[in-house]
Design a protein that fits this description.
about 180 residues; single chain; Aminopeptidase; globular; 9-stranded mixed sheet; alpha+beta
Length: about 180
């Protein structure tokens, strides 16, 4: 799958391959779905992202400025069985003070099949493989919703409600690395 080498940063799960976004992949993404599909040799459904270009542009700008390590940014989840892109996910930058934050989205046609949970669990597992990470954080809107259910399924705990300048009231979720005895 794919003409581009993303190195050892891709994450494999039972059903998914999370492709680590390199500068080359992001440049193809900015050219449009056809260019991205050709580069990665995948199929891309209409409306595969709700976050849109700003999230990918943010990652691109950080990568090109040498801010952070590529594995702590954006991934494209591809359903291995069909080679179909089904959303986006990743981290919001390098770990800081023992913490890294995750985010994810699944295209509407692929919701309800446990794929967001599979993505989030994979991101959490990868984060905890790093000695820099003691806990993983995520935020959802301050209401019971599918995203909160995903985080609960991953073992995350709702910690507090906050006022976000862009999103209004949000809930902060966390999971701590298990200490080995």
């Amino acid at each position: 799958m794919g003409k581009v080498n993303t190195g050892s940063f891709d994450i494999e799960t039972h059903r998914l391959r999370l492709i680590c976004c390199t500068k080359e992949i992001l440049e193809a993404l900015f050219k449009g779905d056809e260019a991205l599909a050709e580069l990665l040799e995948i199929s891309i459904p209409v409306k595969w992202t709700e976050f849109g270009e700003p999230v990918f542009r943010f990652t691109y700008n950080n990568i090109t400025k040498g801010k952070g390590h590529i594995q702590w940014w954006t991934y494209l989840p591809v359903l291995k069985k069909t080679g179909t892109l089904l959303g986006s996910c990743g981290y919001k930058g390098d770990p800081g003070n023992g913490m890294v934050e995750i985010g994810y989205e699944v295209a509407e046609a692929y919701r309800g099949f446990g794929l967001a949970t599979e993505m989030a669990k994979a991101l959490i597992k990868r984060a905890f493989e790093s000695n820099e990470v003691e806990y993983v954080r995520a935020h959802t809107l301050a209401a019971e919703n599918e995203s909160g259910s995903v985080l609960k399924n991953c073992g995350m705990q709702k910690m507090e409600e906050l006022d976000d300048p862009q999103d209004g009231k949000v809930w902060r979720w966390e999971i701590r690395k298990q200490k080995s005895v």
